[in-house]
Design a protein that fits this description.
Organism (chains A, B, C, D): Paracoccus aestuarii
Structural class of chain A: alpha+beta
Number of domains of chain A: 1
GO molecular function (chains A, B, C, D): fatty acyl-CoA hydrolase activity
Radius of gyration of chain A: 15 Å
Oligomer: homotetramer
Protein name (chains A, B, C, D): Acyl-CoA thioesterase
InterPro entries (chains A, B, C, D): 4-hydroxybenzoyl-CoA_TE, HotDog_dom_sf, Thioestr_dom
CATH superfamily of chain A: Hotdog Thioesterase
CATH topology of chain A: Thiol Ester Dehydrase, Chain A
Strand content of chain A: 25-35%
Number of helices of chain A: 3
Pfam families (chains A, B, C, D): 4HBT
Chain lengths: 129, 129, 129, 129
Protein backbone atom coordinates (compact mmCIF):
# COMPACT_ATOMS: atom_id res chain seq x y z
CA UNK A 1 0.00 0.00 0.00
CA UNK A 2 1.07 3.56 -0.70
CA UNK A 3 0.28 6.51 1.53
CA UNK A 4 -0.42 9.70 -0.38
CA UNK A 5 -1.21 13.37 0.24
CA UNK A 6 -1.36 16.49 -1.91
CA UNK A 7 0.71 19.48 -0.85
CA UNK A 8 -0.03 22.84 -2.49
CA UNK A 9 3.09 24.91 -3.12
CA UNK A 10 2.48 28.18 -1.34
CA UNK A 11 4.27 31.50 -1.10
CA UNK A 12 6.10 30.51 2.09
CA UNK A 13 7.79 27.59 0.31
CA UNK A 14 9.31 29.57 -2.54
CA UNK A 15 12.64 31.32 -2.94
CA UNK A 16 13.69 34.37 -4.96
CA UNK A 17 13.95 32.14 -8.04
CA UNK A 18 10.21 31.42 -7.66
CA UNK A 19 10.74 27.72 -6.95
CA UNK A 20 10.57 25.64 -3.78
CA UNK A 21 13.49 26.36 -1.44
CA UNK A 22 14.85 22.86 -0.83
CA UNK A 23 14.88 22.98 2.99
CA UNK A 24 11.11 23.34 2.68
CA UNK A 25 11.09 19.96 0.93
CA UNK A 26 12.65 18.52 4.09
CA UNK A 27 9.67 19.93 5.99
CA UNK A 28 7.32 18.31 3.46
CA UNK A 29 9.06 14.95 3.90
CA UNK A 30 8.64 15.28 7.66
CA UNK A 31 4.99 16.22 7.11
CA UNK A 32 4.48 13.03 5.06
CA UNK A 33 6.06 10.78 7.71
CA UNK A 34 4.27 12.56 10.56
CA UNK A 35 0.85 12.25 8.93
CA UNK A 36 1.46 8.66 7.87
CA UNK A 37 2.08 7.84 11.54
CA UNK A 38 -0.90 9.92 12.67
CA UNK A 39 -3.43 8.67 10.14
CA UNK A 40 -2.28 5.17 9.26
CA UNK A 41 0.02 3.82 11.95
CA UNK A 42 -2.12 5.43 14.63
CA UNK A 43 0.68 7.15 16.53
CA UNK A 44 0.61 10.92 16.53
CA UNK A 45 3.92 12.60 17.40
CA UNK A 46 2.27 14.39 20.35
CA UNK A 47 1.08 11.26 22.22
CA UNK A 48 4.38 9.58 21.27
CA UNK A 49 6.37 12.26 23.04
CA UNK A 50 3.98 12.33 25.99
CA UNK A 51 4.62 8.59 26.38
CA UNK A 52 8.38 9.16 26.39
CA UNK A 53 8.70 7.64 22.95
CA UNK A 54 10.28 9.15 19.88
CA UNK A 55 11.31 8.50 16.34
CA UNK A 56 14.35 10.57 15.44
CA UNK A 57 15.40 10.90 11.83
CA UNK A 58 18.96 9.65 11.40
CA UNK A 59 19.43 10.18 7.67
CA UNK A 60 17.81 12.05 4.81
CA UNK A 61 18.65 11.92 1.11
CA UNK A 62 16.87 14.11 -1.38
CA UNK A 63 17.20 14.45 -5.15
CA UNK A 64 15.67 17.55 -6.70
CA UNK A 65 14.84 16.50 -10.27
CA UNK A 66 12.65 19.32 -11.53
CA UNK A 67 11.63 22.58 -9.89
CA UNK A 68 8.16 23.00 -8.38
CA UNK A 69 6.60 26.44 -8.54
CA UNK A 70 4.19 28.60 -6.58
CA UNK A 71 0.68 27.35 -7.32
CA UNK A 72 1.68 23.78 -8.17
CA UNK A 73 -0.18 21.08 -6.25
CA UNK A 74 2.23 18.20 -5.74
CA UNK A 75 0.95 14.67 -5.19
CA UNK A 76 3.25 12.99 -2.69
CA UNK A 77 3.58 9.29 -1.97
CA UNK A 78 5.23 7.36 0.86
CA UNK A 79 6.19 3.70 1.01
CA UNK A 80 8.43 1.74 3.36
CA UNK A 81 11.54 0.88 1.38
CA UNK A 82 13.42 -0.94 4.12
CA UNK A 83 12.13 -2.21 7.46
CA UNK A 84 14.74 -3.04 10.09
CA UNK A 85 14.31 -4.38 13.59
CA UNK A 86 14.35 -0.89 15.13
CA UNK A 87 14.48 1.34 12.07
CA UNK A 88 12.68 2.07 8.83
CA UNK A 89 13.59 3.83 5.62
CA UNK A 90 10.80 5.57 3.77
CA UNK A 91 10.79 6.46 0.10
CA UNK A 92 8.90 9.73 -0.20
CA UNK A 93 8.22 11.21 -3.62
CA UNK A 94 6.74 14.49 -4.80
CA UNK A 95 5.76 13.56 -8.36
CA UNK A 96 8.73 13.86 -10.75
CA UNK A 97 10.14 16.84 -8.81
CA UNK A 98 11.69 15.43 -5.67
CA UNK A 99 12.60 11.97 -4.40
CA UNK A 100 13.58 11.50 -0.77
CA UNK A 101 14.73 8.66 1.42
CA UNK A 102 14.42 9.21 5.13
CA UNK A 103 15.49 6.80 7.87
CA UNK A 104 13.99 6.83 11.34
CA UNK A 105 14.70 4.85 14.47
CA UNK A 106 12.05 3.78 16.95
CA UNK A 107 12.87 4.83 20.51
CA UNK A 108 10.90 3.49 23.42
CA UNK A 109 10.63 4.72 27.00
CA UNK A 110 14.28 4.70 27.87
CA UNK A 111 14.90 6.63 24.66
CA UNK A 112 17.12 3.92 23.20
CA UNK A 113 16.52 2.16 19.87
CA UNK A 114 13.83 -0.48 20.42
CA UNK A 115 12.14 -3.10 18.25
CA UNK A 116 9.00 -1.87 16.52
CA UNK A 117 5.91 -2.89 18.52
CA UNK A 118 3.98 -5.64 16.69
CA UNK A 119 1.04 -3.49 15.64
CA UNK A 120 3.33 -0.80 14.21
CA UNK A 121 5.44 -3.41 12.44
CA UNK A 122 2.39 -4.93 10.75
CA UNK A 123 1.28 -1.56 9.41
CA UNK A 124 4.79 -0.75 8.23
CA UNK A 125 5.04 -4.14 6.51
CA UNK A 126 1.74 -3.52 4.75
CA UNK A 127 3.31 -0.42 3.22
CA UNK A 128 6.53 -2.15 2.24
CA UNK A 129 7.29 -1.54 -1.40
CA UNK B 1 -19.17 36.19 4.97
CA UNK B 2 -16.32 34.59 6.83
CA UNK B 3 -13.56 32.59 5.16
CA UNK B 4 -12.39 29.61 7.20
CA UNK B 5 -9.80 26.83 7.11
CA UNK B 6 -8.52 24.27 9.59
CA UNK B 7 -4.77 24.13 10.20
CA UNK B 8 -3.39 21.08 12.04
CA UNK B 9 -0.55 21.93 14.40
CA UNK B 10 2.35 19.78 13.29
CA UNK B 11 5.83 19.04 14.57
CA UNK B 12 7.41 21.72 12.37
CA UNK B 13 5.34 24.44 14.03
CA UNK B 14 6.34 23.70 17.61
CA UNK B 15 9.15 24.96 19.79
CA UNK B 16 11.06 23.36 22.68
CA UNK B 17 8.19 24.31 25.01
CA UNK B 18 5.93 22.09 22.89
CA UNK B 19 3.76 24.97 21.70
CA UNK B 20 3.52 26.85 18.41
CA UNK B 21 6.56 29.07 17.79
CA UNK B 22 4.95 32.44 17.11
CA UNK B 23 6.72 33.22 13.81
CA UNK B 24 4.93 30.12 12.52
CA UNK B 25 1.65 31.90 13.31
CA UNK B 26 2.76 34.64 10.92
CA UNK B 27 3.12 31.94 8.25
CA UNK B 28 -0.38 30.69 9.09
CA UNK B 29 -1.78 34.21 8.75
CA UNK B 30 -0.11 34.50 5.36
CA UNK B 31 -1.52 31.08 4.43
CA UNK B 32 -5.03 32.30 5.31
CA UNK B 33 -4.72 35.47 3.21
CA UNK B 34 -3.08 33.63 0.32
CA UNK B 35 -5.76 30.94 0.18
CA UNK B 36 -8.57 33.46 0.60
CA UNK B 37 -7.26 35.22 -2.49
CA UNK B 38 -6.74 31.95 -4.36
CA UNK B 39 -10.07 30.32 -3.52
CA UNK B 40 -12.46 33.21 -3.00
CA UNK B 41 -11.10 36.36 -4.64
CA UNK B 42 -9.82 34.29 -7.56
CA UNK B 43 -6.29 35.70 -7.62
CA UNK B 44 -3.53 33.24 -6.84
CA UNK B 45 -0.23 34.79 -5.79
CA UNK B 46 1.56 33.06 -8.69
CA UNK B 47 -0.54 34.57 -11.52
CA UNK B 48 -0.53 37.89 -9.60
CA UNK B 49 3.25 38.04 -9.71
CA UNK B 50 3.38 36.84 -13.31
CA UNK B 51 1.10 39.80 -14.18
CA UNK B 52 3.45 42.22 -12.40
CA UNK B 53 0.97 42.70 -9.60
CA UNK B 54 1.55 42.23 -5.91
CA UNK B 55 0.04 42.65 -2.52
CA UNK B 56 2.73 43.39 0.05
CA UNK B 57 1.93 43.18 3.74
CA UNK B 58 2.64 46.53 5.40
CA UNK B 59 1.63 45.75 8.97
CA UNK B 60 0.93 42.74 11.16
CA UNK B 61 -0.34 42.64 14.73
CA UNK B 62 -0.74 39.39 16.59
CA UNK B 63 -1.97 38.62 20.11
CA UNK B 64 -1.16 35.18 21.45
CA UNK B 65 -3.92 34.45 23.96
CA UNK B 66 -3.49 30.75 24.73
CA UNK B 67 -0.90 28.28 23.56
CA UNK B 68 -1.68 25.77 20.79
CA UNK B 69 0.00 22.39 21.00
CA UNK B 70 1.22 19.65 18.71
CA UNK B 71 -1.83 17.70 17.53
CA UNK B 72 -4.32 20.53 17.95
CA UNK B 73 -6.41 21.29 14.89
CA UNK B 74 -7.10 25.02 14.86
CA UNK B 75 -10.11 26.43 13.07
CA UNK B 76 -9.09 29.74 11.53
CA UNK B 77 -11.33 32.51 10.24
CA UNK B 78 -10.69 35.57 8.11
CA UNK B 79 -12.83 38.64 7.60
CA UNK B 80 -12.13 42.06 6.11
CA UNK B 81 -12.02 44.48 9.02
CA UNK B 82 -11.22 47.61 7.05
CA UNK B 83 -11.36 48.20 3.31
CA UNK B 84 -9.47 51.21 1.97
CA UNK B 85 -9.14 52.50 -1.55
CA UNK B 86 -5.87 50.64 -2.14
CA UNK B 87 -5.50 48.65 1.07
CA UNK B 88 -7.30 46.15 3.26
CA UNK B 89 -6.96 45.03 6.84
CA UNK B 90 -7.90 41.45 7.61
CA UNK B 91 -8.85 40.09 11.01
CA UNK B 92 -7.53 36.55 11.13
CA UNK B 93 -8.28 34.36 14.15
CA UNK B 94 -7.13 30.91 15.21
CA UNK B 95 -9.88 30.02 17.69
CA UNK B 96 -9.18 31.51 21.14
CA UNK B 97 -5.42 31.09 20.72
CA UNK B 98 -4.31 33.80 18.34
CA UNK B 99 -5.83 36.95 16.90
CA UNK B 100 -4.09 38.75 14.06
CA UNK B 101 -4.64 41.88 12.05
CA UNK B 102 -2.75 42.11 8.79
CA UNK B 103 -2.78 45.01 6.36
CA UNK B 104 -2.02 44.64 2.68
CA UNK B 105 -1.73 47.10 -0.18
CA UNK B 106 -2.79 46.35 -3.73
CA UNK B 107 -0.04 47.03 -6.26
CA UNK B 108 -0.77 47.07 -9.95
CA UNK B 109 1.56 46.87 -12.93
CA UNK B 110 3.77 49.78 -12.09
CA UNK B 111 4.12 48.31 -8.62
CA UNK B 112 2.61 51.35 -6.96
CA UNK B 113 -0.43 51.33 -4.66
CA UNK B 114 -3.52 51.13 -6.88
CA UNK B 115 -7.27 51.10 -6.30
CA UNK B 116 -8.72 47.60 -5.89
CA UNK B 117 -10.19 46.41 -9.21
CA UNK B 118 -13.99 46.33 -9.06
CA UNK B 119 -14.36 42.55 -8.95
CA UNK B 120 -11.85 42.24 -6.14
CA UNK B 121 -13.47 45.08 -4.21
CA UNK B 122 -16.87 43.42 -4.41
CA UNK B 123 -15.54 40.17 -3.00
CA UNK B 124 -13.68 41.99 -0.26
CA UNK B 125 -16.81 43.97 0.61
CA UNK B 126 -18.81 40.76 0.83
CA UNK B 127 -16.38 39.62 3.53
CA UNK B 128 -16.46 42.90 5.41
CA UNK B 129 -17.22 42.28 9.07
CA UNK C 1 21.46 51.68 26.42
CA UNK C 2 20.59 50.11 23.12
CA UNK C 3 21.33 46.51 22.21
CA UNK C 4 22.31 46.03 18.57
CA UNK C 5 23.17 43.27 16.12
CA UNK C 6 23.62 43.04 12.37
CA UNK C 7 21.59 40.44 10.48
CA UNK C 8 22.60 39.64 6.89
CA UNK C 9 19.63 38.99 4.62
CA UNK C 10 20.21 35.58 3.16
CA UNK C 11 18.54 33.41 0.54
CA UNK C 12 16.43 31.58 3.13
CA UNK C 13 14.78 34.84 4.22
CA UNK C 14 13.57 35.93 0.80
CA UNK C 15 10.36 35.31 -1.09
CA UNK C 16 9.58 35.08 -4.80
CA UNK C 17 9.49 38.88 -4.95
CA UNK C 18 13.15 38.87 -3.85
CA UNK C 19 12.44 40.59 -0.54
CA UNK C 20 12.27 39.36 3.03
CA UNK C 21 9.21 37.19 3.67
CA UNK C 22 7.65 38.91 6.69
CA UNK C 23 7.32 35.82 8.92
CA UNK C 24 11.12 35.70 8.74
CA UNK C 25 11.13 39.16 10.35
CA UNK C 26 9.27 37.61 13.29
CA UNK C 27 12.15 35.12 13.58
CA UNK C 28 14.62 38.02 13.50
CA UNK C 29 12.73 39.80 16.27
CA UNK C 30 12.85 36.61 18.34
CA UNK C 31 16.57 36.33 17.55
CA UNK C 32 17.11 39.87 18.87
CA UNK C 33 15.24 39.23 22.12
CA UNK C 34 16.86 35.81 22.60
CA UNK C 35 20.38 37.16 22.12
CA UNK C 36 19.71 40.22 24.27
CA UNK C 37 18.78 37.86 27.10
CA UNK C 38 21.73 35.57 26.39
CA UNK C 39 24.41 38.24 26.03
CA UNK C 40 23.20 41.13 28.17
CA UNK C 41 20.64 39.92 30.69
CA UNK C 42 22.62 36.72 31.20
CA UNK C 43 19.73 34.29 30.80
CA UNK C 44 19.95 31.96 27.83
CA UNK C 45 16.67 30.38 26.76
CA UNK C 46 18.14 26.89 27.29
CA UNK C 47 19.05 27.29 30.99
CA UNK C 48 15.77 29.21 31.47
CA UNK C 49 13.74 26.24 30.27
CA UNK C 50 15.90 23.77 32.20
CA UNK C 51 15.08 25.79 35.34
CA UNK C 52 11.35 25.58 34.60
CA UNK C 53 11.25 29.25 33.69
CA UNK C 54 10.00 30.80 30.49
CA UNK C 55 9.24 34.03 28.78
CA UNK C 56 6.36 33.60 26.34
CA UNK C 57 5.60 36.28 23.78
CA UNK C 58 2.04 37.52 24.23
CA UNK C 59 1.90 40.15 21.50
CA UNK C 60 3.82 41.20 18.42
CA UNK C 61 3.28 44.22 16.21
CA UNK C 62 5.33 44.78 13.10
CA UNK C 63 5.31 47.56 10.52
CA UNK C 64 7.09 46.84 7.25
CA UNK C 65 8.17 50.25 5.98
CA UNK C 66 10.56 49.44 3.15
CA UNK C 67 11.58 46.12 1.65
CA UNK C 68 14.93 44.51 2.52
CA UNK C 69 16.63 42.49 -0.17
CA UNK C 70 18.96 39.53 -0.49
CA UNK C 71 22.47 40.73 0.33
CA UNK C 72 21.40 43.63 2.55
CA UNK C 73 22.98 43.70 5.99
CA UNK C 74 20.43 45.15 8.40
CA UNK C 75 21.52 46.83 11.61
CA UNK C 76 18.95 45.97 14.28
CA UNK C 77 18.42 47.67 17.61
CA UNK C 78 16.46 46.70 20.71
CA UNK C 79 15.36 48.87 23.61
CA UNK C 80 12.86 48.32 26.42
CA UNK C 81 9.89 50.51 25.65
CA UNK C 82 7.74 49.54 28.61
CA UNK C 83 8.69 47.64 31.75
CA UNK C 84 5.85 46.17 33.78
CA UNK C 85 5.95 44.20 37.01
CA UNK C 86 5.91 40.85 35.20
CA UNK C 87 6.12 41.90 31.55
CA UNK C 88 8.21 43.95 29.15
CA UNK C 89 7.63 45.44 25.74
CA UNK C 90 10.63 45.72 23.47
CA UNK C 91 10.97 48.07 20.53
CA UNK C 92 12.99 46.23 17.92
CA UNK C 93 14.01 48.00 14.72
CA UNK C 94 15.72 46.86 11.55
CA UNK C 95 16.93 50.20 10.19
CA UNK C 96 14.19 52.01 8.24
CA UNK C 97 12.73 48.71 6.98
CA UNK C 98 10.89 47.17 9.89
CA UNK C 99 9.74 48.32 13.29
CA UNK C 100 8.46 45.78 15.79
CA UNK C 101 7.02 45.84 19.29
CA UNK C 102 7.04 42.55 21.13
CA UNK C 103 5.66 41.91 24.60
CA UNK C 104 6.88 39.09 26.83
CA UNK C 105 5.84 37.86 30.25
CA UNK C 106 8.25 36.46 32.79
CA UNK C 107 7.21 33.04 34.09
CA UNK C 108 8.89 31.50 37.06
CA UNK C 109 8.92 27.92 38.30
CA UNK C 110 5.20 27.39 38.55
CA UNK C 111 4.91 28.75 35.03
CA UNK C 112 2.70 31.65 36.10
CA UNK C 113 3.48 35.34 35.50
CA UNK C 114 6.03 36.40 38.13
CA UNK C 115 7.77 39.66 39.01
CA UNK C 116 11.09 40.15 37.24
CA UNK C 117 13.96 39.09 39.53
CA UNK C 118 15.92 42.14 40.72
CA UNK C 119 19.03 41.54 38.62
CA UNK C 120 16.98 41.11 35.46
CA UNK C 121 14.90 44.20 36.26
CA UNK C 122 18.01 46.32 36.67
CA UNK C 123 19.36 45.27 33.29
CA UNK C 124 16.00 45.84 31.65
CA UNK C 125 15.76 49.30 33.27
CA UNK C 126 19.21 50.17 31.96
CA UNK C 127 17.89 49.55 28.46
CA UNK C 128 14.68 51.50 28.99
CA UNK C 129 14.25 54.03 26.21
CA UNK D 1 41.59 24.82 2.41
CA UNK D 2 38.52 24.47 4.58
CA UNK D 3 35.84 27.11 4.93
CA UNK D 4 34.39 27.37 8.42
CA UNK D 5 31.72 29.24 10.36
CA UNK D 6 30.13 28.90 13.78
CA UNK D 7 26.36 28.65 13.97
CA UNK D 8 24.71 29.13 17.38
CA UNK D 9 21.72 26.86 17.93
CA UNK D 10 18.83 29.17 18.71
CA UNK D 11 15.24 28.76 19.80
CA UNK D 12 13.94 28.91 16.21
CA UNK D 13 15.98 25.84 15.24
CA UNK D 14 14.67 23.51 17.93
CA UNK D 15 11.76 21.12 18.04
CA UNK D 16 9.55 19.91 20.90
CA UNK D 17 12.26 17.38 21.81
CA UNK D 18 14.59 20.34 22.44
CA UNK D 19 16.97 19.42 19.61
CA UNK D 20 17.53 20.84 16.16
CA UNK D 21 14.64 20.08 13.79
CA UNK D 22 16.43 18.49 10.86
CA UNK D 23 14.96 20.69 8.09
CA UNK D 24 16.73 23.54 9.88
CA UNK D 25 20.00 21.69 9.22
CA UNK D 26 19.20 21.94 5.52
CA UNK D 27 18.95 25.72 5.99
CA UNK D 28 22.32 25.68 7.76
CA UNK D 29 23.89 23.74 4.89
CA UNK D 30 22.51 26.31 2.46
CA UNK D 31 23.84 29.08 4.71
CA UNK D 32 27.33 27.50 4.57
CA UNK D 33 27.32 27.23 0.76
CA UNK D 34 25.83 30.71 0.33
CA UNK D 35 28.41 32.35 2.58
CA UNK D 36 31.28 30.37 1.07
CA UNK D 37 30.30 31.79 -2.31
CA UNK D 38 29.79 35.28 -0.90
CA UNK D 39 32.98 35.49 1.17
CA UNK D 40 35.43 33.21 -0.62
CA UNK D 41 34.33 32.63 -4.20
CA UNK D 42 33.22 36.25 -4.47
CA UNK D 43 29.75 35.58 -5.89
CA UNK D 44 26.84 36.58 -3.69
CA UNK D 45 23.53 34.92 -4.55
CA UNK D 46 21.93 38.34 -5.11
CA UNK D 47 24.31 39.57 -7.84
CA UNK D 48 24.29 36.03 -9.29
CA UNK D 49 20.52 36.17 -9.77
CA UNK D 50 20.65 39.75 -11.04
CA UNK D 51 23.09 38.53 -13.70
CA UNK D 52 20.71 35.75 -14.74
CA UNK D 53 22.96 33.14 -13.21
CA UNK D 54 22.06 30.54 -10.64
CA UNK D 55 23.32 27.53 -8.77
CA UNK D 56 20.45 25.16 -8.02
CA UNK D 57 20.95 22.33 -5.54
CA UNK D 58 20.24 19.02 -7.23
CA UNK D 59 20.93 16.63 -4.35
CA UNK D 60 21.33 16.73 -0.59
CA UNK D 61 22.31 13.91 1.76
CA UNK D 62 22.42 14.41 5.49
CA UNK D 63 23.33 12.06 8.33
CA UNK D 64 22.27 13.15 11.82
CA UNK D 65 24.79 11.50 14.12
CA UNK D 66 24.16 13.17 17.48
CA UNK D 67 21.58 15.72 18.51
CA UNK D 68 22.48 19.41 18.88
CA UNK D 69 20.67 21.38 21.53
CA UNK D 70 19.52 24.94 22.20
CA UNK D 71 22.56 26.93 23.29
CA UNK D 72 25.14 24.77 21.50
CA UNK D 73 27.50 26.64 19.21
CA UNK D 74 28.32 24.36 16.30
CA UNK D 75 31.52 24.78 14.33
CA UNK D 76 30.76 24.00 10.71
CA UNK D 77 33.22 23.24 7.91
CA UNK D 78 32.86 23.07 4.14
CA UNK D 79 35.17 21.49 1.57
CA UNK D 80 34.71 20.62 -2.08
CA UNK D 81 34.47 16.83 -2.23
CA UNK D 82 33.96 16.50 -5.98
CA UNK D 83 34.43 19.09 -8.70
CA UNK D 84 32.79 18.35 -12.04
CA UNK D 85 32.78 20.37 -15.24
CA UNK D 86 29.50 22.11 -14.40
CA UNK D 87 28.79 20.82 -10.89
CA UNK D 88 30.31 20.53 -7.44
CA UNK D 89 29.63 18.41 -4.40
CA UNK D 90 30.36 19.97 -1.02
CA UNK D 91 30.98 18.08 2.19
CA UNK D 92 29.51 20.21 4.96
CA UNK D 93 29.93 19.13 8.57
CA UNK D 94 28.56 20.46 11.86
CA UNK D 95 31.06 18.93 14.29
CA UNK D 96 30.14 15.33 15.16
CA UNK D 97 26.41 16.08 14.93
CA UNK D 98 25.61 16.32 11.25
CA UNK D 99 27.37 15.47 8.01
CA UNK D 100 25.94 16.68 4.72
CA UNK D 101 26.77 16.32 1.07
CA UNK D 102 25.17 18.83 -1.25
CA UNK D 103 25.51 18.96 -5.02
CA UNK D 104 25.03 22.15 -7.03
CA UNK D 105 25.07 22.89 -10.73
CA UNK D 106 26.38 26.12 -12.22
CA UNK D 107 23.88 27.79 -14.52
CA UNK D 108 24.90 30.66 -16.74
CA UNK D 109 22.81 33.24 -18.57
CA UNK D 110 20.64 30.89 -20.54
CA UNK D 111 19.95 29.06 -17.28
CA UNK D 112 21.45 25.81 -18.57
CA UNK D 113 24.31 23.89 -16.91
CA UNK D 114 27.55 25.64 -17.86
CA UNK D 115 31.25 25.05 -17.17
CA UNK D 116 32.52 26.84 -14.06
CA UNK D 117 34.19 30.14 -15.01
CA UNK D 118 37.98 29.90 -14.54
CA UNK D 119 38.19 32.11 -11.46
CA UNK D 120 35.44 30.18 -9.70
CA UNK D 121 37.00 26.85 -10.63
CA UNK D 122 40.35 27.90 -9.18
CA UNK D 123 38.79 28.83 -5.87
CA UNK D 124 36.77 25.62 -5.78
CA UNK D 125 39.91 23.59 -6.56
CA UNK D 126 41.77 25.31 -3.74
CA UNK D 127 39.07 23.98 -1.38
CA UNK D 128 39.12 20.46 -2.83
CA UNK D 129 39.57 17.94 -0.05
Amino acid sequence: MTYSRTIPIEFCHCDPAGIVFYPRYAEMVNHMVENFFLEVVGHGFGPMMAAGQGMPTVALEMAFRKPARLGDRLDWTLVVEHLGRTSARFLVRGEDRVEARTTVVWMDRDFTPSPWPDAMRQTLEAHHA
